[in-house]
Design a protein that fits this description.
The protein is mainly alpha-helical. It has 21 helices and eight strands. The longest helix is centred in the first third of the chain and has 25 residues. This is RagB/SusD family nutrient uptake outer membrane protein. Belongs to the SusD family.
Amino acid sequence: MKKSIFYSIIFASLFLVGCSEDFLDPERNTNVLTDADFNEYSEINPDLIVGTLDGIASFMIQPQGITTQHYDFGQKGVDIWLDILVGDMALATSGYGWYNGVANLVSTVDETQDENKIIWNYYYKIISLSNSVIMNSGGNDAEPETPELGRILAQAKASRAYAYFYLTQTYQREFDLTQEILPYYDGETTETAKVPASQIYDLILRDLTHSLELLDGYTRSQKNQIDQSIVHGLLAYTYAAMGNYPDAKLHADAIIDSGKFPLTTTGQLAYPGVGSGFNNINTPSWMWGFDLTEDLGHQLVDWWGQIDYFTYSYAAAGDSKAIDDGLFAQIPANDIRKTQFGTGNAPLMPINKFFDPARTEMEQYIITTDLIFMRVEEFYLLSAEAAAKTGNEGDAKATLIELLTIRMGGVAEAEAYVNPLSGASLIDAIYLQTRIEMWGEGKAYLAMKRNKKTATRGTNHVFRAGSSFPYNANEMSFLIPRSEIDNNPSIDSQN
């Protein structure tokens, strides 16, 4: 796709704004389309609805979609913040200061900081775009007459559910269905005051359940498109966050049992293996991601521009992101994942997991390495966690052994690690393996929240080295931004 076409989709899609006054009164800005305009134009050109749906996927990776800050680039920007919060990603050096606020746990207790605004507006923008597609596809209760219309409605509903799910995880300190947490917009109902978490979770589950039905038989053409596997994944995460582990396991196992996504091979896990590196959308274990091409023109303001030593990046220039040395020490010596992290000029940086294949320091300027949102290993770990927490330790161990066999060099090595475990030690081991396996992918934070763990930092953090913070500490979640409180009269404080 050409860069001009790509960002034309973005521009056309972003006529809907995020939340509060802008969301409620779009007509006050004559440069944006109103819903009435959209209804009229979409009747003339139905492709506008499809373009808006495509724009949601594009917005997930758009540089500086909310602000001009260099850590503002959609979902992958959020993933970095979440990994820093859980402590597994250390800001090991700080030359430019982009991540100082989160690494020092200042931004999460100050509602005026940009990080709060970026995350809030990013997800509510996706909700707004999704609502527009849903309303122009017949509404929340629509039953589309054709598979194509069903696919459009399903993907929009899944996108809305994805955004609301991440809002629940980042803006609620711990799961409580009775707590009022977020404004609620479903395209038909507008509640600018915070509603109970139960109302948000009900919408997420309704959206995903309906989406799963509508996507039956759909085969996507690109991995940035949502299909049934992605919906199963979102359902697994949602049920797990709610403590409903039987249903979480049901959906995690649906992904595994489909056979569509083989486990990442030993060679793919770390350089110099064949096909190594988490940089290619065509890796069979990748379920959801985005194919970055030269025509898109992504440069410094990108996930790779903050993480990769071999990209023209902050990571190589003085803002290095490394694995927490305490976590690294817990990776067994025979585990291939221990070799994902560097030494020498790049101590504990992920130079053998996330890298430009040319492997020349600061070489990749126009970014063509791809972005990952979801892969199959997440659901082996979530299935094992759910099994262990529901008393099915045999199933939990078998699933974990299957995953670790590839990583530890063989079945005997994996069994030696797993078989002695039981009860709390088994659950703790699955949590540890989730942190190791998903390093740099933003998922350990979700595991910390649902497992009610404490984040303890090692010695290689610029800020708060050696400190510990429980999952529900104020520092571990974001705040409703001051801009929202100022512009939304229905919200007057964080409480």
